[in-house]
């Protein structure tokens, strides 16, 4: 493992940074219950479209304070949704504040969060939406949904693709013909329209958990066909290698040869392809949520956070911070593509 990281760092420092950035982002998203200052559906009804909170070290009189603080924002113009800071009282930023009870990973109860301020002030690093919900907290919770859907979906689809392509390439004959014709039928349909068609087969009044599992299933079913064809071609070549013929002469079963001798030699490609494919699953979930067919309110995903701004020019002009979910999608996609491109060279045995 140490050798791999050193090889990745030597090949591309940007890709090395992308790996640790994505790892940190997954960690932050999955521990959103502990790190987010507010629950994803906590509403401040008197603070819709609240601008991002300013963190101060110098007060209105010009005095410096070691401990950062915020001022409470009050509505200056309710028609145009403008706010102004109330300089009469400072609200220090506190660590491990106490609040409403949450559950980390649905099991561990906690009523302590990483940071926060006392009411009536609020700390909204990315502002609030039309219901007064903290965008920063919702992006953290939404990242947990969007990133986990992509991770689980890509693992399922790549398992299906490897098994189907491996069986077709290794056994050949009628097995190969049947499996590849089925794969080609799936590949005929444009993936986006196939995704919409599969979603339309199910009712709209599903629970959030059911919608989550449904999206994972849909994205998995449309993502494995292309990999299956490539794995089939690799297995057709690998099964003629000397080490495979030696394993056959020793009497090893076909399944053992396939699992322990052929599949491991495809990992340099499959790991790279898996990394590059993750952005497609994130975009797929975002597209469904934008169309109202994905994760439903109040549960956040990056797609439905972004959907509140699409088509509403006034909101985009008055509260541009609502577009931050799209920026997070863009940044994560770029880092996955940079990492996948580097892994293609780092894991290639010809470069070892």
Question: What key phrases describe this protein's structure?
Answer:
alpha+beta; MetI-like fold; 3-stranded antiparallel β-sheet; 14% strand
Summed up, what is this model?
With 352 residues, this protein is an alpha+beta fold.
- The percentage of residues in β strands lies in 5-15%
CATH superfamily label of the largest domain: MetI-like
Determine the structural class based on helices, strands and strand pairing: alpha+beta
Mean pLDDT: 83
Strand tally: 5
Major sheet: size, sense and barrel closure?
3 strands, antiparallel
Shape: elongated
Low-confidence stretches: none
One letter per element, helices H and strands E, the order comes to HHHEEEEEHHHHHHHHHHH
Write down the CATH class of the largest domain: Mainly Alpha
Radius of gyration based on Cα positions: 25 Å
CATH topology of the largest domain: the name is: MetI-like fold
Describe this structure in words.
The protein has 352 residues and is an alpha+beta fold. The chain folds into 2 domains: 83 residues, no CATH class; 214 residues, Orthogonal Bundle (MetI-like fold), CATH 1.10.3720. It has 14 helices and 5 strands. The chain has a 3-stranded antiparallel beta sheet with strand order 1-2-3, with no helix packed on it. A two-stranded antiparallel sheet has the order 4-5. The radius of gyration is 25 Å and the shape is elongated. The model has no long low-confidence stretch (mean pLDDT 83).
Strand and helix map with partners:
Elements: H1 2-11, H2 13-30, H3 32-35, E1 56-58, E2 64-77, E3 82-92, E4 94-104, E5 108-116, H4 135-171, H5 173-188, H6 191-200, H7 208-221, H8 225-238, H9 242-249, H10 254-262, H11 267-290, H12 302-307, H13 313-318, H14 324-346
Antiparallel strand pairs: 1-2, 2-3, 4-5
């Amino acid at each position: 493992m140490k050798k791999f990281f050193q090889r990745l760092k030597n090949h591309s420092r940007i890709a090395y940074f992308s790996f640790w950035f994505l790892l940190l982002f997954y960690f932050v998203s999955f521990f959103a219950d502990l790190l987010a200052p507010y629950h994803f559906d906590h509403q401040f009804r008197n603070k819709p479209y609240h601008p991002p909170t300013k963190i101060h070290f110098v007060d209105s009189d010009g005095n410096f304070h070691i401990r950062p603080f915020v001022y409470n924002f009050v509505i200056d113009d309710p028609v145009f949704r403008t706010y102004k800071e109330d300089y009469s009282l400072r609200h220090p930023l506190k660590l491990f504040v106490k609040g409403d009870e949450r559950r980390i990973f649905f099991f561990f109860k906690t009523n302590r969060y990483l940071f926060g301020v006392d009411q009536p002030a609020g700390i909204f690093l990315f502002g609030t939406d039309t219901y007064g919900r903290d965008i920063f907290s919702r992006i953290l919770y939404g990242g947990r949904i969007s990133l986990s859907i992509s991770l689980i979906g890509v693992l399922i689809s790549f398992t299906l693709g490897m098994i189907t392509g491996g069986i077709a390439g290794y056994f050949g004959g009628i097995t190969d013909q049947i499996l590849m014709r089925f794969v080609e039928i799936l590949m005929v349909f444009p993936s986006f329209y196939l995704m919409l068609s599969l979603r339309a087969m199910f009712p709209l009044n599903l629970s959030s958990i059911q919608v989550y599992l449904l999206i994972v299933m849909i994205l998995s079913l449309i993502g494995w066909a292309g990999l299956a064809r490539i794995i089939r071609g690799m297995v057709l070549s690998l099964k003629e290698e000397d080490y495979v013929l030696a394993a056959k002469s020793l009497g090893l079963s076909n399944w053992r040869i396939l699992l322990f001798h052929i599949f491991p030699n495809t990992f340099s490609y499959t790991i790279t392809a898996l990394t590059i494919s993750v952005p497609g699953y994130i975009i797929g979930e975002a597209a469904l949520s934008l169309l109202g067919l994905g994760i439903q309110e109040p549960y956040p995903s990056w797609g439905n956070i972004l959907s509140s701004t699409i088509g509403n020019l006034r909101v985009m002009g008055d509260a541009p911070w609502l577009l931050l979910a799209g920026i997070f999608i863009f940044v994560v996609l770029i880092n996955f593509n940079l990492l996948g491109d580097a892994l293609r060279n780092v894991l290639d045995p010809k470069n070892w």
